[in-house]
Amino acid sequence: MRIGILTSGGDAPGLNAVIRGAVLTGITVHHQEFVGFRNGWKGVVDGDIVPLGREQIMGISKQGGTILGTSRTNPYEHGGAERVAEVMEQNGIDALLAIGGEGTLAAARRLSNAGVKIVGVPKTVDNDLDATDYTFGFDTAVQIATDAMDRLRTTGDSHGRCMIAEVMGRHVGWIALHSGMAAGAHAILIPERKTSIDQIVEWVQSAHNRGRAPLVVVAEGFSLDSMTDVHSERGLDAFGRPRLGGIGEHLAPMIEERTGIETRATTLGHIQRGGTPSAYDRVLATRLGMHALRLVLEEHWGCMVALQGTEIVHVPFADALGKLKVVPDERYDEAAVLFG
Ligand code: F6P
């Protein structure tokens, strides 16, 4: 078979390890041939193809980003299934391996329903896909955020300030919950739990009263109970989703005004997606790549690989998509015992 691989949507540490896992197994064990599409679905609809052999994948599992490039292009805005099938036909490509998050896999599902032979690998630092226990990139993002919070705490302590760390996660609070717990935050604010400013102020004040410099971790998708929508000032992405960011800066003056404690907000942003993947993410990504290749060889079209417990399984796109994996109440309540 000649298999085309693409990485699409926001990058996540571990993408290269997936590519290596699939290509190395495919070439050495199963004698298959691979090509890469540059920049996600954009490369597919443009027919922008690069060779993908052993030479290209040498030593890449420890590299962040993606050697293929990525974009948030929606193939359905550029000719859809017809164009994708045409490019595959022109280049003698038998099947696609699409590595991406919700948007990418939703497009893969539509293409699969239209007859394109396609297998998916879930990817997102947000860890918000319901069918898989963890996605690669999440562990690395949590570690980066935790390191940053440890640093925010030392400067916060020196000045006696309240420090707000805003993390990614889109509409779920997994990165906030894990990094906030790891860093010993005095409050963790997540999209799943609308909270009042009075409650936040109470946690901040209580930490301050004990002589601590309060650390508040806020997920970008968090809203106060007084807000009707998420904080978004940068319009929509190609899949019609709001671009989030800025809630930390929004909260800082409110906390400062109510407590009299000098407050600073830091948005960690794309730093959370950059750099070397953790060992955990490299291993998970490599296993997902290897198993995805097996799905292609067994012609399990319209499926994606997933982690359930410690096993890699496969699930049909139809069952895997459309449902967000949110932070359960009991996980939040467990963390909240230590707030303030
Ligand atoms: O889905 C991953 C993610 O990093 C989100 O946490 C964040 O809201 C979004 O992507 C940022 O997207 P972009 O890289 O297009 O700015």
Structural class given helices, strands, pairing? alpha/beta
Count of helical stretches: 12
Amount of helix: 40-55%
The CATH class name of the largest domain reads: Alpha Beta
Question: Which fold name fills CATH's third level, the topology of the largest domain?
Answer: Rossmann fold
Overall, the morphology is: elongated
Low-pLDDT parts are none
Based on the model shown, name its key terms.
alpha/beta; 16% strand; 11 strands; 4-stranded parallel beta sheet; Rossmann fold; single chain; 340 residues; 7-stranded mixed beta sheet; 2 domains; binds 6-O-phosphono-beta-D-fructofuranose
Short account of what is shown:
By secondary structure, the chain is an alpha/beta fold. 40% of the residues lie in helices and 16% in strands.
Describe the protein's topology.
Blueprint: E1 2-7, H1 15-28, E2 33-37, H2 41-46, E3 49-51, H3 54-57, H4 80-90, E4 95-100, H5 102-113, E5 118-122, H6 138-159, E6 162-167, H7 174-183, E7 187-189, H8 197-209, E8 215-219, H9 247-259, E9 263-267, H10 279-297, E10 303-308, E11 311-316, H11 317-320, H12 329-336
Parallel strand pairs: 1-2, 1-4, 4-5, 5-10, 6-8, 6-9, 7-8
Antiparallel strand pairs: 2-3, 10-11
Helix pairs in contact: 1-10, 6-7, 8-9
Describe this structure in words.
- There is one protein chain.
- The chain is an alpha/beta fold and 340 residues long.
- The protein has 2 domains: 2-136 and 277-320, Rossmann fold (3-Layer(aba) Sandwich), CATH 3.40.50; 138-274, Rossmann fold, CATH 3.40.50.460.
- It contains 12 helices and 11 strands.
- The strands form 2 sheets. Strands 3-2-1-4-5-10-11 form a 7-stranded mixed β-sheet, with helices on both faces. Strands 7-8-6-9 form a 4-stranded parallel β-sheet, sandwiched between helices.
- Strand 4, helix 5 and strand 5 (118-122) form a beta-alpha-beta unit.
- Helix 1 packs across helix 10 (279-297), helix 6 (138-159) crosses helix 7 and helix 8 (197-209) packs across helix 9.
- The longest helix is centred in the middle third of the chain and has 22 residues, at 138-159.
- The protein is elongated, with a radius of gyration of 21 Å.
- The N and C termini lie far apart (58 Å).
- The model has no long low-confidence stretch (mean pLDDT 97).
- Residues 10, 72, 101, 124-126, 168-170, 220, 237, 244, 273 line the site of 6-O-phosphono-beta-D-fructofuranose.
